[in-house]
Amino acid sequence: MLHWFDSIILGIVEGLTEFLPVSSTGHMILTNKLLGYEVIPEELKTFEIVIQFGAILAIALVYRQKIFQVLGLGKRESVQGLSVNAFPKKKLNLLHVLLGIVPPMAVAFLFRDYIKEIGFHPAPVLWALVVGGIYMWVSEFFYESGKIKRTSETMDDITYKQALFIGILQCISAVWPGFSRSGSTIAAGMLSGVSYRASADFSFFIAIPIMTAATGYEVITNLDQFRSGEMDLGFLMTGFIVSFVVAWVVVVAFLKVLQKIKLKHFAWYRFALAALFYIFIMR
User: How do residues 212-225 score in pLDDT, each as one tens digit?
Assistant: First the structure.
């Protein structure tokens, strides 16, 4: 039987980990184990789909102005009666977003059966935590060593080539649960010459369409669970609201202290999590 306490705990874990480079998958598996779910019930799988919507809504709220800009719905500035858009100025647009999301979405769709059958087993997730941490650490080392020329300070400076590079490297996390989508995109951005802050912004921004598509697909394939009426609406809404609030606070706070928290710090955290994962899940 699912308890409201579980709803709150899982909502907090989802909100805390979905957008940080720490692997939300690893945390959710470990949390389910600690809550006593040896085998995850179908109702809980449906619940985890719902709370992802809360996290998506939170990130969309944070980047709402940029969403309007990319969709061409933002306010146009003017200078002496002329539209600023009349001047050649780089801006993030829909093509940047597509280059960043199409490769991982296509790969995830093609390998969806493999991901569901094998990808979420403890061993692959454990190794993803370790390898993903090493990848982030190495990427930051090259970024801070000066060997990579920084060419994009903001999201609006990102080139099509950089967006595509980020999209391609993001494919690793698409087929390897636990690797961390945000970790792969932030590190890829830094390797391509995008600043740490812009890499984080772009990672969070392209998470909106990626997670919307992934969650929407899960909803369609699990419609029977929603139609059955077996799920407690209060249980679902509690997790949804908690996930939304926590995800919003986490993203806003992370962006404010970004320069103080390096990827290597997240890498160390991932190694510690991998150790806990091994102790509680695999032994």
Answer: 998 888 778 777 76
